[in-house]
Known about the structure:
Helix content: 25-40%
Radius of gyration: 18 Å
Number of strands: 15
Largest sheet: 7 strands, mixed
Number of domains: 1
CATH class: Alpha Beta
Order of helices and strands: EEEEHEHHEHHHEEEEEEEHEEHHHH
CATH superfamily: Ribonuclease Z/Hydroxyacylglutathione hydrolase-like
CATH topology: Metallo-beta-lactamase, Chain A
Shape: globular
Amino acid sequence: MAQVSEVAERIYEIKPGGKEIENFPLCTVYLIVDDNTALVEVGCSVQLPDILEAVDKLGYDIKKLSYIIPTHVHPDHAGGAGLLVRQLPQARVVAYTRAAKVLADPSILERLMQGFMRVYGDDAQERFGEMVPIAEERFVLVADGESIPLGERELKVIHTPGHDPNHLCFLDTKSRGLFCGDALGGYFSEVEVSVPSSAPGSDPIITLQSIEKLQELNPAILFFSHGGNTREVTRIMRMLADNNRQCTDIALNALKAGMDMAEIANSLADVLVKGSKLTREDYLAASPYFVPATVEGYRQYFNKKKI
């Protein structure tokens, strides 16, 4: 059963509630209730029953949902969008133009899931659920600087490539809350620990540029898709930028030195647990996805750049 809490006026955080897939952190989803109501992130398909139950317990009719807003196309963020939109004839899916092309094309979705399976195992589709294509007419295409009107508030669109080339963040004009997807990485306030933005296909240099862009917005709240929310914005954003910068340098030097994935993960974890409530061993044990996804992301990037 999902954990639901109101984290800003008429913004409800829907967390997986301890339900994980072999310690993979499922996506935190946010329901924004207004004249036009939006669901920011949808998670993977296996999360949909819990999300629908949570929305129902809030007393809201999911069939009145106006917008489904995944921050990017990765299966743990947008995996359930296709199945959900089929149940909701009024809802539109908000996406960057190139992201919409991915989510509409079954052949691209198949390749996307194959990449997910290479990182998380051959049974990844079975564990996370299928991704089904979304008809092109169901999209609302947005670009950097545009806004999505909801009623008393708007969501300002910020293009934040790095983790994914088509990644978007959204700034709520009423709460000044930033729905940051994976642009900053993940942050788990209960243990004060972060996860870098690196993943297969990511660009750590562009990630840092996107983090700087988000810092300039001076948001009042950070709504993380992996983790929860925090109002310690200045400190946390500075920490996440520093962690991403340090991890990129460490990964490059470690790869040049011929270190294996486990050794690199140990070195990165030493940075990430500083000031947290976890030891390196606790961090790695709680985050087995960290080794294949984060380290592989750095390896692919530096190989591509021939550094």
